[in-house]
Design a protein that fits this description.
- The protein has 3 helices and 4 strands; from the N terminus they run αβαβαββ.
- It has 96 residues and is α+β, with helices and mostly antiparallel strands.
- It has one domain: Alba-like domain (Translation Initiation Factor IF3), CATH 3.30.110.
- Strands 1-2-4-3 form a 4-stranded mixed beta sheet.
- The chain is globular, with a radius of gyration of 13 Å.
Length: 96
Amino acid sequence: MDNENRDKKRIDIIKVSATSRTSSVAGAIAGVIREHQHAEVQAIGASAVNQAVKALALAKGYVVDDGYDLICMPEFVDVEIDGKVRTAIRFTVEPR
């Protein structure tokens, strides 16, 4: 993947926190999938990852009637927040 395409995909990162509402995050994922056929969901910390996984399960149901069967591929990524490097989990979401 060239840098231009990678940068375009990074625009769609949905950041999830421990207090994020799963239905709202699921709706955001579904909207991005419908528009771009690709989304990235990022979470830092166990509670945030829990909310992200629940939102991914909900989003899968939200888009099934649109003909999408979603898959998620998790990966660890390092992100810089307030000058400190933190490890996040990023889920790449795409139709099968």
